[in-house]
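Example 3.2
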Amino acid sequence: MTNEGIVRVGNEDLSNLEVKGAYTQKGEDSRLQLDFGRHKNSKLIAGSYDIQSGILEYIPLQQFFYSGEYVKIDLGELSNSIDKFTEIKVSENNAMRFEAVLDADKRTINAASALKSDAYNTPNSSIGSVLREIRNNQDLSENYRNYFALLDNSPNSIEILESIEGKSYLDNAASDANNALSATQQNMLFALNPTAVTSLAFNLKQKPQYVASVNSDSLTNTWNFLELNDKSFFWYLSPNYKKINGDGNKGYSSGVDLAIGKDFNEDLRTTLNLKYSNTNLDFNGSDFDSKNVNLGVNAIYDVEAFKLLSGAFVNYGFNKMDRKVLGSPDSINANYNNLSLSLQMGMAKDWELQDFTLTPLAYLNYAYYHQESFKESGMWSKEYDPINHHTTSLASGLNLSYNFGDTSLKHIVSGFGIYEYRLNGKTLKNEARFNDFITQTFTQQNELNKYLISLGVSYYLSFKDYFLSVSFVDELARKENNMKLSGSFGMRF
């Protein structure tokens, strides 16, 4: 046999290759690859050896090697030609390196295994050091030893590490934070002009302006579209559907919004929004089913030159998580709840030209997010500390509406754009630990979207005190691009 390329001997059974006659190896890049395990290695057995050049390479099997363990590799008859190879090497795997030293008997290589200092490291987490400490545990169970053997040798080790790390709960929290921004935008727009979903143009001290607008969640503004006369209450009901397309997550959300508003006098208006939604998301193998109920209260005060905006928002979420760790037979699941609170303060101004109305607005938003501690079950399951996170953002936007119609039917076509930028609290952090190794804690973190851009268009139709509307909203962020379709119906009373 003449080897001028690569000859691989052994595999899982560590069998030998027998050559009847001479084995010749030549060429600087030629390789003889022999597999080895903790207690045995494969050999190439030939009648004679003619080694002219090339590499002799020993490759570790998918076995668990303890760090600091010495593995003896029997050279066999190759020991007589060891000095003829250009290079002799013992290959490393994903986590272990082997330092090879020729024994004094000249027939044995002593390979000392050592865990790499950066083994199992992942971005935005300290889990690597914890996994290295776990791997060095001399009392590690057979199930975990077999799993580390898989992890150390798999070509998909990055994907396996990501599944062990399991940061999808932080991804879901980041999605919740975006939804909270979207909901507060909707509530603010509804308070400004509750009768046309996107219309921001309304002056409590003027005669009715038949204008409308689209908010970031549903067609809800119908306040000015209906004559204000002596009917100071307004309500609407809006079913909606959102398609979620994120960086590493896909899903949808469906729900219904109920809103009511009242003018107390020429200067003051208050509104109340009650929403329910059911969201299903897939984060690279982790499935989330979240049910959210939120309440928003807003007040608008007209001070002649502009309007003062204020709002408060509270959301309570019920989450069910199912995820899979690659290479593990167990399915990991957990249930946990979260709470969001936020406060808004800002101002808006109307400019009217015939049937067109342009309204700029700006407000500051403070938000608090709490996620309760929870515990998973299964191999590589974790226990998570509670999250308490504070953030502030600044929102500004424009709304343009055009109204037309006759005495009985009134129409509005409108559009809006709002840009909201997160001023601080851009990084969400939490601590966790594996249930089977409870003493070792590590930190995980996720970057929240720094901004949210909401762009919407709507069409609105009213007859007497009743109205119908439909809207489309596109939500753009660094990690998400969501599209929402909603309709609404309601009346004034």
